[in-house]
Amino acid sequence: MEKYTKYEKARIIGARALQISMGAPVLIKTDLEDPIEIALLEFERGVIPITVRRRIK
Questions:
Q1: 2 three-class SS
Q2: What is the DSSP secondary-structure string of 3-44?
Q3: Nearest to residue 49, comparing CAs of 5, 4, 22, 19?
Q4: pLDDT, block means (10 residues), the chain with 57 residues
Q5: Which domain, by its residues, includes 30?
Q6: Whole-number pLDDT of residue 21
Q7: CA–CA separation, 53 vs 55, rounded Å?
Q8: Fewer Cβ neighbours under 10 Å: the N or C end of the chain?
Q9: Residue 28 forms part of a structural domain
Q10: How many domains does the chain have?
């Protein structure tokens, strides 16, 4: 898994939590109901299909 800054991590988890709250399928088996907790668990397991594009300096 790539190293993400705390800002990238917050953005990825926030975007994924929004997707889940709007009805997107959950990518892991869990009994959790809070979209943020689910997104955090997905992030920790490395299954979120979101990539980070960084500018080259």
A1: coil
A2: ---HHHHHHHHHHHHHHHHTTPPPSS------HHHHHHHHHH
A3: 19
A4: 86 96 96 96 93 87
A5: 6-45
A6: 97
A7: 7
A8: C
A9: yes
A10: 1
Q: Which residues contact 6 (CB under 8 A, 6 or more apart)?
A: none
Question: Hunting for tokens 């990238």 — which residue is that?
Answer: 8
What pLDDT does residue 14 have?
97
Provide the token pair at 25: 């399928």
Report the distance separating Cα 4 and Cα 31, nearest Å.
27
CATH assignment of the domain containing 34: 3.90.940.10
pTM: 0.87
Kindly report the length of the chain: 57
